[in-house]
Amino acid sequence: MSKLYAEIAEPLRRLIERQKIFFTATAAAGTRVNISPRPTDLLRVIGPNRVIYLDLTGSGNETMAHLREDGRLTFMFCTFEGPPMILRLYGKGRSHQLGSPEFEALLAEHYEGRRPTGARQIVELEADLVQTSCGYGVPLFDYEGERPVLNDWAERKGEAGVREYQLQKNQISLDGRPTGLAAAS
Fold first, then answer.
1. Is 0.85 surpassed by the pTM of this model?
2. pLDDT at residue 81 is higher than 50
């Protein structure tokens, strides 16, 4: 039922582009496994094995801590509409922090230079294995729209308020690992 691929072929790229949500999974030795839902509007497939997403400030920053320590990263997509399928991208991830030359270059090239309030990093996955599986157990859902809550929160706080929140809440993972989030950008 599952199939393995060396890269993200065009039909799989189109499948990714049709999705409204995906999930990231990371872990480091001795840590909890972290799984987070992500919106696909900030996701970009930028090569046959490269995918990035612009990460917004959240309640924690497990992804950055895990990538800094270990680097393993998995993206999972499920089709909640149409034919059933699960797509996983396995590989190594990197975090490009807000203000870094890599962040700025990726922002300019793939996001038209537009940075939403609350942006924290661009996460990059270099996939070394692409897997599809049947998805027969994935339920059907009707998409109603995106929740505006996170963007509204960031806009109300403003850049300085978001930065202060990051310094208070995004410096250390649940397991006490440093995220490496820069003290100033």
1. yes
2. yes
Owning domain of residue 95:
3-136+146-169
Assess if residue 183 is contained within a domain.
Answer: no
pLDDT tens across 151-182, in order? 999 999 999 999 999 999 999 999 999 999 98
Tokens representing 49?
Answer: 């094995």
Query: Does 24 fall in a domain?
Result: yes
Please report, in angstroms and rounded to a whole number, the separation of the first and last CA atoms in the chain.
47
Mean pLDDT of all residues in 143-150: 95
Q: How many CB atoms lie within 10 A of CB 103?
A: 20
Which residue reads 């400030």 in tokens?
57
Q: Is residue 81 part of a domain?
A: yes
Dist. CA 173–CA 55, nearest whole Å: 16
CATH of the domain at 131: 2.30.110.10
Q: Say which residue the tokens 């300019």 belong to.
A: 108
Structure tokens at 21: 């949500």
